[in-house]
Amino acid sequence: MPIAFHLDMNFNQLKYWMERFSRAVMIVDDRGIILDVNRPFQRLVQLKNHEIKGKSCTQFLTVPAQLEWGRNQMQWLKGKLRCGGANMIKTDIQMLTGNDDHRSYHVLTFYPATPFENIAAQLISHLHLGIVLLDERNCVLEINPAARKYLGMERKEVLHQPLEESIARLQLPEPFSERLIALLSSPAEGCRRTEVEQKVKNAAQCLSITIHPVHDRFSGFTGRYLIIENVTEIRSLEKQIRRNNRLATLGQIAAGTAHEIRNPLTSIKGFLQVIGHRLKENGQYKEQGYIEIMLKEISRISNLVGEFLLLSKPRDVRLQTVSVFKVLKEILPIIKNEAMLHNVQVNIEKNLSSLPVVVADGELLKQVFLNLCKNAIEAMGDGGELTIRLTAGEPESKVIVDIVDMGPGIPVHVMEKIFEPFFTTKENGTGLGLSICQQIMKEIGGFIRVSSGEMGTTFSVHLPLA
Ligand SMILES: Nc1ncnc2c1ncn2[C@@H]1O[C@H](COP(=O)(O)OP(=O)(O)O)[C@@H](O)[C@H]1O
Ligand SMILES: [Mg+2]
């Protein structure tokens, strides 16, 4: 906002003031020829007075707009000064126009950007936060690279133009543009915040947008700035924490209920067996068959409840040094039996020079391998190969056991959920196998990785070596 200003000062008085002023000052005539400069100016451009005087100011100075001489007022301009060779520095310039004996002159005082301002500008350009500086008419004065990315705008497309117009012209996606326009049309004072979710390359992105007023007393500048922050990860973590809390509560209830179910089951099972014997003695084979079915179903319930208990209240882990190979050998008959029922062939591959010994709980580890092999066999349905492969890990302080199947693979939308308790895609599944495996691995200090494609799925069990 230019302030009307009239500087009528005798030229000598002006020189006296200028020599005692700490900032770089240059005096030019109406044609832009340099009449005088002070010592701070000479220091700044690294030249002597006689090398500067009489030359055109454009040899030292570039300003984006044409300089308008001869106006009796103060103006603020932005420009660049040539300082020693090709070195240009950014500067704010205050220009005053005055008269001495009807000869007008122009006093240019330089306020070069300080190192702090330069560093701040660099910082803003490197920030992951999107920042847009707006003047009081919502015209874009500056937009950093992060904001350009979030808004999908090029700097030169939007600079010095009202942001609302650019939003309309560049056809930003609906909820985003709507919220942004609402923010821009909010009263200039006070902060406002909004959040918007949008799809970027098929993934949901959550952006928080805040608008703040700014006022610079020094230059009289009044405007606002927008801060755009990607809060996708925070929101997804919050969601996960809420879900974990829910599951933890569910787990506690489940543990209590499971106990209550198991005890009566034991007595029902006992009495059914007694009845079964009696029926057999009486030759009621058909009825005895029913009892057999009931007992089988009861053992299914009992197993389910057992898994349930393990999940919600894992027994104390007994960590010892165990041989992975020995653990696998012990459960191999069970795996082979299950595999035979599904026409699946079991291969064991050992890509290791020595037999790995890990720190784990052998019984729990068996459960992990059994669950993974069972899933692999079930995924193949009928026929195929199950490969159990031992390899050295990276770094060498661990061993990896891969359980590889030739099943149909796991679709992406299923993959997200497979470790969740009770998630199953099987008619008779419990959905507890993988979540138990994960829980056990956490306690052993290892982890499970999954990779899946059309050729099948590989579950990799990473174990710390002893
Ligand atoms: N090897 C595999 N191939 C394809 N899908 C699998 C595999 N292992 C697990 N899954 C998927 O993960 C789900 C959860 O497995 P799990 O927790 O063991 O429960 P359940 O076996 O009772 O379904 C399965 O229902 C299945 O959809
Ligand atoms: Mg399973």
From TrEMBL:
Enzyme class, broadest EC rank: transferase
Entry GO MF terms: ATP binding; phosphorelay sensor kinase activity
Record's catalysed reaction(s): ATP + protein L-histidine = ADP + protein N-phospho-L-histidine
Histidine kinase domain ranges (all copies): 256-466
Residue span(s) of domain PAS: 116-174
Alphabetical UniProt keywords: ATP-binding, Kinase, Nucleotide-binding, Phosphoprotein, Transferase, Two-component regulatory system
Listed InterPro entries: HATPase_C_sf, HATPase_dom, His_kinase_dom, HisK_dim/P_dom, HisK_dim/P_sf, PAS, PAS-like_dom_sf, PAS_fold
SMART domains, per database record: HATPase_c, HisKA, PAS
UniProt keyword Cell division present: no
NCBIfam families from the UniProt entry: sensory_box
Annotated EC: 2.7.13.3
A Pfam family matched in the record: PAS_9
Name assigned to this protein: histidine kinase
Stored PANTHER family: PEROXIDE STRESS-ACTIVATED HISTIDINE KINASE MAK3 (PTHR43065:SF10), SENSOR HISTIDINE KINASE (PTHR43065)
Gene Ontology biological process terms in this record: regulation of DNA-templated transcription
